[in-house]
Design brief:
single chain, alpha+beta, five-stranded antiparallel sheet, four-stranded antiparallel sheet, 23% helix, globular
């Protein structure tokens, strides 16, 4: 069971739900697109996703800080990051490939996409997004 976090204005259309060792990043389908192996956001949304990561690391539920203190997943049920989180910029979008669970909805009327990321993705993902925004 997770906790839906109150979004900050800097997050724009992105929303976060924190869990014990992972978090969900959710946004409208046109903002957060995914395939079986990658996900992408508009280049102008990089600050929004960075703000979402700030919310994850500063969550009042302290799940991220508890995970950092342990330094490993509690159950091993999240995708593990073993290196960099590669990002490619094509001008209009930033495409990321790395460990994430892509949440696929079969309901075509649902206007959002979500991905689940383990807390070990936070640091390399932040570095990739910062590099992509330069």
């Amino acid at each position: 069971m997770g906790a839906i976090q109150e979004p900050t204005p800097e997050m724009g259309p992105y929303r976060v739900e924190t869990r014990r060792e992972s978090f969900y990043l959710t946004a409208p389908r046109e903002r957060l697109a995914n395939t079986a192996t990658t996900w992408s956001i508009p280049a102008e949304d990089v600050p929004c996703v960075l703000a979402a990561l700030d919310l994850v690391t500063g969550s009042s539920h302290n799940w991220y800080s508890s995970w950092v203190a342990i330094g490993r997943p509690v159950t091993g049920d999240v995708p593990e990051v073993t290196g960099d989180y590669p990002a490619a910029v094509d001008g209009a979008r930033v495409t990321l490939s790395g460990p994430a669970w892509l949440i696929e909805r079969t309901d075509d009327d649902w206007p959002y996409n979500s991905i689940e990321l383990g807390y070990d993705a936070v640091v390399p993902l932040r570095a990739a997004l910062l590099a992509a925004s330069r």
